[in-house]
Amino acid sequence: MTVIVKKTTQLIAGIIFLYGIYIILHGHLTPGGGFAGGVILAGSFILLILAFGSDFLHLLREERGSTLYENLAILIVLFLALSGLLAGANIFFGNWLPHGTPGELLSAGFLPLYNIFVGIEVAASILTIFLALVIFKEEVMK
Amino acid sequence: MNPLIPLLVAIPLAGAFLTMIIGRFITGIPRYIALATLLLTAFISFWLLVAGGGDQSVYIMGGWEPVNGIPIGIHLVHDGFSALVLCIISLIGLLSVLYSISYIARYTSGNYFYALFCLMIAGMNGVVLSGDIFNIFVFLEISAISSYALVAFGVEKNELEATLKYQVLGAVASFMVLFAIGFIYWSTKTLNIADIRAVFSEGHDRSYYLLIQILLLTGFGLKAAIIPFHAWLPDAHSSAPSPISAMLSGVLIKAVGIYVIIRLFFNMFEITGAMAVMITTLGALSMAVGVFLAIGQWDIKRLLAYHSISQMGYVVMSAGIGMTLLARGVRPEVAALAITGGIFHLVNHAAFKGLLFLNAGAIEYSAGTRDLHEMGGLARPMPVTSATSLAASFSISGIPPFNGFFSKLIIIVAAVMARFYLLAALAAVVSIITLASFMKFQRYAFYNGEPGRIGKEIKEVPLPMLMSMVTLAVICLLLSLLALPAIRDAVLTPATDILIDQMKYSSQITGM
Fold it and tell me: Is any Cβ of chain A less than 8 angstroms from the Cβ of B155?
């Protein structure tokens, strides 16, 4: 890619990443949440890969890492859901943390936690799919 | 609120993702994680079957209690019918994983296999437990997508072609189901099965109702491979690795196809004469056409796959006979008998078709071929495979004292009592043709000629594969005990009751 594309990407990739984090963290207050924010996070990574070419990042190593994060994140979501079952209330997906004042960032009990881990899960899995397609294409080209 | 119910979905999901994480660092562990997952799931499902005693038990996710009798949360419903199907899923799943330990060792990337396997189990358990039509769709997609990947596991030309066909038709089916769910939500403003029934019973547009029914019957009929929608099944089921074929044919088409059709058409929709006739016709058609397509096959796995269509026809037909009688409002005891026969046959089919596919896998493992022309005389080098496949062939063709005989007997007797003489005769004829086609299988595979023809030395398969085949053969024999009145009342009757009694399913959920 040209210098213009690379420079612009460098400038905006970080902002897109931050925006994704914002969407995830405010998931229980504003529209959006784990899924939408996760897609935006993955978008910033994909933008970097597209602008700088596949040999800049070590794709195979990336792919291994993103698969690991994906599986860990979904396991943590499952564990949080199970914690409701274990915490005495005997409710799967039970929201037993204090709910706080509605409208504040730290409120709604488990919801921000679910949003964060779902965000990681979605970002990692979309990145994994993208990397798998790129790696597959490179292997075919060889 | 029995906490074991959500665990049936959570444990296989956790197993799938643990497999992927741990398998990355330690090779050889994933198979034991999958085995432990399935053992735990099987234990829980049998515990729920025995301890539940067929009573309905509802689990509300996240503790969202109904408001004014209108369910707002996600409900998991465990009753007599779902308990039976859950037991089949986890039992056949457990034996398939045991079998895979040796069988999959030949393939690369076993991690993915076991992870997808656990994911498929989680999806099927979810479909069976869900009391909410949109969650049925979500779990249906989980199990369908993992089964697409598993069918393509060999990554050869045939596998990829089969999985493409399966994916395209599966996507059409999912689209129709989603479309129907959209229509239902539009007119009833609810997704809970019991609540949908309550809203529809207050009055509905007849043609709109019929459209929804047809869309759902087509969508789930595609998943269940009832005859006009069967094109994907022979390819997909014969190309998959054998333990997966056993899962697809033995369990998947029942859990995401037949089970949902029966559940929705008995417990969600009013039983109408027109739909009853349609379901009976489709069942009878699958039963008859499937067996004629099967008898000409020389590829053993294709032969077995076509027989799955035919045997599922028995189940759908007997459910249809039950529906017809209930719609007319006459002789509910005969309707109960027909439905009991259908459910009994569903359970039996899981056992013997699972076993037959495992046998086919064992033959492929040792002899390296699936073509009946190239086999012969395998009975001497592979005595256990031969004996177990004989048992399974007797079961599927309905020879006493194996389980298939009793369920087919109940279905035929119920059809005669309901005065469907033609259907009863057809069921008997199809059973005879089934026998003929399995005699062909036995003769060409195990008895005709010498094993030397294949040109390599044939040995019996490894111990884990033998163990799962022998266990299934014993289960085939033991399942005939379900025909005894005392055991039938404990296991099969609760399943029939929940389907026949129009109010029983909804009463506990909507609190009326």
Answer: no
